[in-house]
Specification:
Blueprint (H helix, E strand, L loop, with lengths): L1 H21 L8 H8 L1 E8 L7 E8 L4 E6 L4 E9 L5 E4 L9 E8 L3 E5 L5 E6 L1
Antiparallel strand pairs: 1-2, 1-8, 2-3, 3-4, 4-5, 5-6, 6-7, 7-8
């Protein structure tokens, strides 16, 4: 009786291990896929500091070479920055492409073909939508 019980235990453990290993693995997006998804034109609206409007709108253009063009639509000024991905999947903004230290670091919460949701180091979330 003990041999049958031990045999059933081994069979159950083998079956459980088989089903756990057989489950489809969801691929995590690598940096190339993230870069391709990020490229293009995005718009973000932030709460304004003045009394004239409720939101300030920024347009971002992420280019293939790592350049990010940032346009403030209220003042019609354009600034540039460089972006890169960290090893942990964070979005880094740098002054120069060769800089080793990022000026701003954002944790990417969501990135798909039409939305980008990031969180800064102060846990403030920003939503970008594709133009």
């Amino acid at each position: 009786m003990k041999k049958i019980f031990i045999g059933l235990l081994i069979l159950a453990a083998g079956t459980g291990a088989y089903f756990l290993l057989k489950q489809p693995q969801t691929p995590t997006p690598d940096s190339e896929n993230r870069t391709v998804l990020l490229q293009g034109n995005w718009v973000a609206r932030f709460p304004a500091t003045g009394k004239d409007s409720l939101f300030t709108t920024f347009q971002y253009a992420f280019l293939q070479d790592g350049l990010a063009l940032i346009r403030d639509t209220a003042t019609a000024t354009t600034d540039s920055s460089y972006y890169a991905w960290s090893k942990t999947g964070d979005l880094l903004f740098k002054e120069k492409q060769t800089d080793s230290v990022a000026v701003n670091t954002y944790t990417v919460l969501l990135l798909n073909k039409d939305s980008l949701l990031v969180k800064d180091t102060a846990n403030k979330e920003y939503l970008f939508t594709r133009l």
